[in-house]
């Protein structure tokens, strides 16, 4: 079954334009995972539509790559410049990147290709001064129109700094993890597993929460 | 997963226009009218007839040239007039603004709208958490998006508070998922199409003329809501509370970080309603206009459209090139 219909293929072409630099999707799958099959299908179709976009498939048995990319849930998708030895950045999608999050996937491809994080100077300065790694887990549902705003902000931070891991996590696909963080509304961003940020917040507000998390310490 | 739509609704390609107007109240609709009459391609994105301040007003008796009529009917008349000159109205929500080569992308719940100029007319019906318990329980059972968060409350009891068509639509969605929906309506039950379906739904219990006094809960989530109605105060046990209430805050979140409001929460403009970002204009209640009247918002919309048209033409030269 084809996922992208003709109109959606057109949308993708228009949305991405020509990629100035080739981009690689690395998709981590495993057996018995329905969302893995759908993600693989979607990723394959995208590579057919977008010149300069390639796909690398990694099975669960390839432990070295799984470990190197820090994958702990399936399906997982990384978006990187094609020429880079992976992992080149911390952009991750956990779960099928569909519904409203399809736009986050296209945006990740677009920004990685252009190497444009497009962050405000305050966040850039914060990231430049940060020594420790930073993990942003953004819980979403595919029917949430606000969620891509937060996912894309987190992904832009991962593009700006190699120390940032920015993960879109489909709360419906990973209900136990969502329950662990008490997710009852999305988007919900968890900073370093400790501080919850509710809603799609602007950059300034996220920065304030990051500073708050830093003050609290580990 | 295979049945999940890759994209949820929306246009099948990014829509391009000369001007995208966000908000279709008196300011936005009048801007659309003037821009469309100036032969610009105009797209207006708006949340619905009753989403803004005028749409929530009962009878308006001081709109020049019109007999006393309900606010939503005036909004409808303004839109129809703009549509007759070619303006296109879309029902959706603006989520973000991004500069792009030669203009802007307005990111909406319908997808991407591209334009060379943008007029912000989003009004001032935003609100900050005001009900006791609301701020603390946001994201722990308090929500304003059933489409986003409804699945977390499958088979549980929820409350929906509001009286707009959006509230009714979201309550209907929840009625399919939840065990029961306590429908809290400040004032009498509205009569719109979704409301008629709601009040006869077996899992919906309407509470007209009730207001929300508090949301009760703890770190684990929402436990109950406290309501006040004609019969006094009472508590209803629920796990989720979906709020569709309107306040008086300018709606500017979709513009950030490209354009930030001032310390008063309002957008600042120069002469001709241009903002600090060339090509982005702002009109209506999203500004701190001292007198908030539909006719003043409409006049601002007219002037902004005229200025936007000049700006667009000035940059791109003669007509055959800019169409």
Structure description:
The complex is a heterodimer of chains A (218) and B (323). In chain A, 41% of the residues lie in helices and 21% in strands. Chain A has 218 residues and is of the alpha/beta class. An eight-stranded mixed sheet of chain A has the order 2-1-3-4-6-5-7-8. In chain A, strand 1, helix 2 (34-49) and strand 2 (53-59) form a beta-alpha-beta unit. The longest helix of chain A has 16 residues, at 34-49. The mean pLDDT of chain A is 94. In chain B, 25% of the residues lie in helices and 29% in strands. With 323 residues, chain B is α/β, with parallel strands linked by helices. In chain B, helix 1 packs parallel to helix 7 and helix 5 (165-177) runs parallel beside helix 6. Chain B has helices at 26-37, 71-84, 134-137, 146-149, 165-177, 193-199, 294-316, 319-322, and strands spanning 15-22, 42-46, 59-60, 69-70, 88-91, 94-100, 103-108, 111-120, 142-143, 157-162, 180-185, 204-208, 211-218, 221-229, 232-237, 240-244, 280-282. Chain B has eight helices and 17 strands. In chain B, a hairpin with a 2-residue loop joins strand 7 (103-108) and strand 8. At the A-B interface, helix 1, helix 2 and helix 6 of A face strand 9 and helix 4 of B.
């Amino acid at each position: 079954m084809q996922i992208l219909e003709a109109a959606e293929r057109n949308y993708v072409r228009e949305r991405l334009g020509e990629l100035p630099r080739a981009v690689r999707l690395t998709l981590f799958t495993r057996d018995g995972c329905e969302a893995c099959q759908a993600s693989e299908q979607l990723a394959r179709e995208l590579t057919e539509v977008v010149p300069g976009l390639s796909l690398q498939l990694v099975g669960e048995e390839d432990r070295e790559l799984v470990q190197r990319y820090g994958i702990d849930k399936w399906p997982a998708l990384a978006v990187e410049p094609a020429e880079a030895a992976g992992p080149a950045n911390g952009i991750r999608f956990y779960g099928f990147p569909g519904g409203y999050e399809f736009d986050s996937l296209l945006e990740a491809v677009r920004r990685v290709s252009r190497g444009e994080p497009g962050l405000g100077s305050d966040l850039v300065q914060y990231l430049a001064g940060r020594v420790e790694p930073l993990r942003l887990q953004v819980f979403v549902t595919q029917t949430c129109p606000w969620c891509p705003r937060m996912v894309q902000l987190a992904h832009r931070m991962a593009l700006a700094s190699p120390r940032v891991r920015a993960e879109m996590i489909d709360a419906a696909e990973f209900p136990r993890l969502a329950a662990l963080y008490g997710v009852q509304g999305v988007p919900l961003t968890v900073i370093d597993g400790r501080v919850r940020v509710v809603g799609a917040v602007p950059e300034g507000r996220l920065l304030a929460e990051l500073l708050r998390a830093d003050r609290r310490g580990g | 997963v295979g049945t999940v739509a890759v994209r949820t609704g929306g246009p099948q390609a990014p829509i391009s226009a000369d001007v995208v107007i966000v908000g279709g109240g008196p300011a936005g609709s009048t801007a659309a009218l003037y821009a469309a009459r100036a032969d610009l391609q105009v797209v207006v994105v708006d949340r619905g007839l009753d989403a803004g301040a005028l749409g929530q007003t009962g009878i308006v008796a001081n709109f020049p040239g019109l007999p006393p009529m309900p606010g939503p009917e005036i909004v409808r008349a303004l839109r129809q007039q703009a549509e007759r000159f070619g303006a296109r109205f879309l029902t959706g929500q603006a989520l973000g603004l991004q500069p792009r080569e030669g203009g802007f992308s307005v990111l909406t719940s319908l997808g991407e709208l591209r334009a060379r100029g943008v007029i912000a007319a989003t009004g001032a019906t935003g609100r900050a958490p005001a009900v006791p318990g609301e701020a603390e329980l946001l994201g722990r059972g308090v929500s304003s998006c059933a489409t986003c968060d409804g699945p977390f409350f499958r088979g549980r009891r929820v409350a929906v508070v509001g009286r707009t068509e959006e509230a009714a639509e979201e309550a209907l969605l929840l009625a399919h998922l939840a065990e029961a929906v306590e429908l809290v309506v400040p004032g009498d039950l509205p009569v719109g199409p979704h409301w008629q379906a709601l009040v006869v739904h077996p899992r919906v219990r309407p509470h007209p003329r009730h207001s929300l006094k508090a949301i009760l809960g703890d770190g684990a989530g929402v436990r109950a809501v406290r309501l006040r109605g004609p019969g006094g105060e009472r508590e209803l046990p629920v796990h989720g509370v979906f709020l569709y209430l309107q306040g008086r805050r300018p709606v500017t979140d979709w513009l950030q970080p490209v354009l930030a409001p001032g310390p008063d929460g309002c957008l600042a403009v120069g002469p001709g309603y241009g903002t600090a970002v060339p090509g982005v204009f702002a009109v209506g209640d999203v500004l701190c206009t001292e007198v908030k009247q539909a006719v003043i918002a409409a006049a601002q919309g007219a002037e902004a459209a005229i200025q936007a048209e000049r700006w667009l033409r000035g940059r791109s030269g003669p007509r055959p090139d800019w169409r």
